[in-house]
Design goal:
By secondary structure, the chain is α+β, with helices and mostly antiparallel strands. It is built from 11 helices and 22 strands. A hairpin with a 4-residue loop joins strand 20 and strand 21.
Length: about 400
């Protein structure tokens, strides 16, 4: 039978104690209705958490006197020599947050610490927000939300709710972070389109982010959703006119997909076009094949463009820039199956010979320098017998 686990959230009673055999010991006082420890009895007691040295080492540099802990572990009930009950917990996971300020009007709870995110309409009690039934915890999105909160002291965007019912529309990860940190008042927006400007369907509008020779056709039935940005969406902005597409039964702007095992592809960008094809039962859809995730693709292909005086100017994606030997770059099978148009490769070679460099870098990733963007420039470099090529390695 699997061991039950509990979660401990709060600031310990004493400074961390280093114990030779156990590692580090933390003591939490359990106050009914205040201390956030799941599955605990409704009376005042104590919780003793032991953390092994390797686990403690991951967070030790962040520890301060007022550090807030989120711990998970296996509990065991005990009674001390004075007859006082306490719970001992062997910690299996630890997260820490600094900068929280206790709410004087509500001891045990904390204020929202940073500046309010853009689009905030009001700061309201978290208890007034209604959560739809059967809503699953977005684990990856929650981790990213916590990392952003720790770095900036605020949310990236407010929690979006329907004003008439106070039902959550989007921002569930931020809501869960606030619950974990016992923050009673949270920033919300009543604009159901809040954040829509950051959707990839909006960002790619009027941007030439792909080359025609990169585009191939993929069976819609072979495309599945694996990215958190698609799986965790609460309020989908459908930015395509289905009536116009129905006239021709054709999607003209490509989506981007990442190859998976078994002949399947993961959608990278283009959710509206993908759903339009599904709704209208369109068999095939134009696609650019990449080895990037959604965020990597947005950084390397879409966010490198910005308008200046009405013209699009390219900007290299964020990463480690430099020269990489051609022999060290690994080309994925997905690229080998779709070689660039020879005429376009020739244009790229001519550009290099005229300017002494390519217009954009080759984008690679990982210790094996996996090619994720710039296949045409890689081929051109090979044909010119270059020993190395200008690259950006994604972080």
């Amino acid at each position: 039978m699997a061991e039950s686990k509990i979660t401990i959230k709060g600031i310990p009673q004493k400074k961390p104690q280093i114990v030779a055999k156990e590692g580090v010991i933390l003591i939490f006082k359990i106050i009914p209705g205040k201390t956030q420890i799941s599955g605990m009895p409704a009376y005042e007691s104590y919780c003793r958490v032991s953390i092994n040295k390797n686990l403690w080492k991951k967070v030790s540099k962040e520890i301060k006197e007022t550090t807030y802990y989120i711990l998970e572990g296996v509990p065991k009930a005990n009674v001390n020599p004075k007859g006082m009950p306490f719970i001992s917990v062997l910690c299996s996971d630890i997260k820490v947050v600094n900068g929280l300020v206790e709410d004087e009007k509500n001891p045990g709870s904390f204020k929202f610490p940073g500046s309010l995110p853009e689009d905030t309409d009001e700061v309201i009690p978290i208890s007034s927000i209604r959560i739809p039934e059967n809503l699953k915890e977005p684990k990856t999105a929650k981790k990213k939300a916590l990392d952003y909160f720790k770095k900036h002291g605020t949310f990236k965007s407010p929690v979006v709710v329907k004003k008439d019912t106070m039902t959550l529309v989007s921002g569930y990860a931020n809501y869960l972070i606030a619950k974990d940190l016992n923050i009673e008042m949270v920033p919300v927006s009543y604009n159901l389109l809040a954040g829509a400007k950051s959707k990839d369907e909006i960002k790619i509008k009027n941007i030439k982010w792909y080359m025609l020779e990169e585009v191939t056709e993929i069976n819609v039935k072979d495309i599945i959703l694996t990215e958190d940005i698609h799986l965790n969406v609460q309020n989908f902005i459908f930015s395509i006119n289905l009536k116009e597409i129905a006239k021709t039964m054709e999607i003209t702007t490509p989506i981007a997909v990442r190859p998976l095992e078994g002949g399947k592809y993961s959608l990278v960008i283009g959710a509206a076009r993908y759903f339009a094809a599904k709704i209208l039962d369109i068999e095939k859809i134009p696609a650019v094949i990449t080895d990037m995730s959604h965020d990597e693709f947005m950084g390397a292909r879409l966010l490198r463009y910005h308008k200046v005086g009405g013209n699009n100017k390219a900007r290299a994606p964020k990463g480690i820039e430099g020269e990489t030997p051609i022999s060290l770059i690994k080309v994925p099978e997905s690229f080998l199956k779709t070689k660039p148009n020879p005429a376009k490769v020739k244009e790229t070679i001519e550009y290099y010979r005229k300017h002494g460099k390519f217009d954009k870098p080759v984008v690679i990733r990982g210790d094996n320098n996996l090619l994720v963007d710039g296949y045409k420039r890689y081929i051109a470099a090979k044909e010119m017998n270059l020993t190395s090529v200008w690259t950006v390695k994604l972080k």
